[in-house]
Amino acid sequence: EAGVTQFPSHSVIEKGQTVTLRCDPISGHDNLYWYRRVMGKEIKFLLHFVKESKQDESGMPNNRFLAERTGGTYSTLKVQPAELEDSGVYFCASSAKRNYGYTFGSGTRLTVV
Amino acid sequence: DAKTTQPPSMDCAEGRAANLPCNHSTISGNEYVYWYRQIHSQGPQYIIHGLKNNETNEMASLIITEDRKSSTLILPHATLRDTAVYYCIVRVAGSEKLVFGKGMKLTVNP
Fold first, then answer.
1. Is residue A101 very low, low, confident or very high in pLDDT (cuts 50, 70, 90)?
2. A33: part of which helix (H) or strand (E)?
3. Is-contact A17 A1, C-beta < 8 A?
4. Residue of A111, A69, A94 lying closest to A2 (CA atoms)
5. B32-59 residue pLDDT tens
6. Nearest to B30 by CA among B85, B103, B91, B105
7. Are B10 and B18 in contact (CB under 8 A)?
8. Quick one: pLDDT band at residue B29, thresholds 50, 70, 90?
9. pLDDT grade, residue A75 (50/70/90)?
10. What residues of chain A have any CB closer than 8 angstroms to a CB in chain B?
């Protein structure tokens, strides 16, 4: 089966611009998660979708971040406006069932200059 | 904050068993222990998880002590490709959130 796909793999944008990251989960996986690792820090949870519903968005850092999953398939994470501290690697993961291991994508490396 | 404690690093000889320890003394009765690893800058890779019984899959074995305060991940025949940062994670009951700590860097040497 195809894995979790993230696009783009790298993005370099200027401070103040908008960037949209995309995640395509494994087909049929209702659970979709976003995590990120900013420079020098541990991997942190951002949010969890079950189908198109946000189940837990307690990790979203502020209102510059907007995640959507229309139709319960792929998801997007928009950062608007981007700040320097948003630089890092953004990971998406999916799972078929709760309490199971996730499959992570390779991540999107975001650099804000 | 992560609820687990791991040594920062460990070395293992290729072909030998790698035993990766993890302490989770504050774990609650319904919280699972998960292990993931991250090879270089790839996305984390799920290895195994368990609640109280020992678990084994094609990648590894997970041994959880009877009091559940610690566990050991065993890679039975380590290869160079097992060099990675290994994360022991206690998943908070009722939450899908994984709290990653600093992990432990395993280096498999030829």
1. confident
2. strand A31-38
3. no
4. A94
5. 999 999 998 899 999 999 999 899 999 9
6. B91
7. yes
8. confident
9. very high
10. 4, 31, 33, 35, 42-45, 48, 55-56, 58-59, 89, 91, 93, 98-107
Length of chain A, in residues: 113
State which H helix or E strand residue B83 sits in.
Answer: none
Q: Are B9 and B104 in contact (CB under 8 A)?
A: yes
Quote the Cα angle for A60-A66-A71, to 5°: 115
Q: What angle do CA A83, A85, A88 make, to 5 degrees?
A: 110
Residue B3's pLDDT is 87
Strands (E), chain B: 9-13, 18-23, 32-38, 45-50, 55-56, 61-64, 70-75, 84-91, 104-109
Out of B44, B49, B96, the one facing A43 most closely (by C-beta) is B44
Question: Could you tell me the pLDDT band of residue B92, with boundaries at 50, 70 and 90?
Answer: confident
Span A18-23, mean pLDDT? 98
Chosen from A29, A30, A36, A42 to mutate, greatest number of chain B CBs within 10 A: A42
Task: Give residue B110's identity as a one-letter amino acid code.
Answer: P
Minimum CA–CA partner of A90 in chain B: B43
- What is the Cα–Cα distance from A80 to B69, expressed in whole angstroms? 43
- CA-CA distance, A18 to B61, in Å (whole number)? 44
